Amino acid sequence: MNIVLVDDEKGIVAGLQKMIGRHIPECEVTDVAYNGIEGYELIHRLRPDIAITDIRMPLSDGLDMIKKLIEAGSTTKFILLSGYADFEYARQAMQLGVRFYINKPVEEEELRDCVRQVMASISAERDKLREMDALKQEARQRNQESELPPQKKDLIAEIKAYVAANFDQPISLADLSSRFYISPIYLSQIFKQKTGETYVNFLAKVRIGKAKELLERTDLKVYEICQRVGYSDTQYFARLFEKWTGLKPTEYRKRQPDV
């Protein structure tokens, strides 16, 4: 995770950088500022995961900086550096939603523990957001399925019929999505949901089925059959055929008495 440091004392900033590098290697100090105005501009531009800031600084103090950043929509988590005389400032920071602070002088163990607490908080929030996004996506997909117009209710049947008639042509998910006006991702998901198999698996099954018919009923060469069922690479076709049937195309043909 990325960290920005804001403190008007360069010695403290340098010390914090060393402590973070030594004890929290999974974090990187991306930049530093020495007053609240610089800190605001830096955090607003870089959008770090964490900002460690002093309260009392020239030009603009840490609380003003935090307030302006929150009003600007910042999601950065703040850790306050607080002296005992700064209790009232710390109380105001809590009212702004800042929950983490470190007493001065900064102890390495306290810094490490506090930063790790903030990291855990950020990770938990991100997990919750991902879970909510997944639920929203699932709801959108269900709505999309339920809102298909009447002519699209038999979408899967239409796709199967189209594949059966055009298996010898390039018909990827992208091709089908353009033809049936539906996103490739949703098409893949709804096909698996309705048929119990992936579209790629279904297409291969159709093509291998047609290849078996040609091997049984014609004397076409294997490479000719490969091309007739929609494949351009004979070796790939032979491997796929063996995967589906357990036999190489030539072995399969030899077992057919009429060819």
Keywords:
259 residues; alpha/beta; Arc Repressor Mutant, subunit A; 2 domains; 61% helix
Can you characterise this structure?
- The protein is α/β, with parallel strands linked by helices and 259 residues long.
- The chain has two domains: 125 residues, Response regulator (Rossmann fold), CATH 3.40.50; 105 residues, Arc Repressor Mutant, subunit A (Orthogonal Bundle), CATH 1.10.10.
- The chain has twelve helices and five strands.
- α1 links the parallel β1 and β2.
- α2 packs parallel to α3.
- The longest helix is centred in the middle third of the chain and has 39 residues.
- The N and C termini lie far apart (67 Å).
- About 2% of the residues have low confidence.
In short:
The chain has 259 residues and is α/β, with parallel strands linked by helices.
Strand order within the widest beta sheet: 2-1-3-4-5
Output the helix-strand order. EHEHEHEHEHHHHHHHH
The percentage of residues in β strands lies in 5-15%
CATH class of the largest domain: Alpha Beta
Describe the SSE topology.
Layout: E1 2-6, H1 10-23, E2 28-33, H2 36-46, E3 50-54, H3 62-71, E4 77-82, H4 87-95, E5 100-103, H5 108-146, H6 155-166, H7 173-180, H8 184-195, H9 199-217, H10 222-228, H11 234-245, H12 249-254
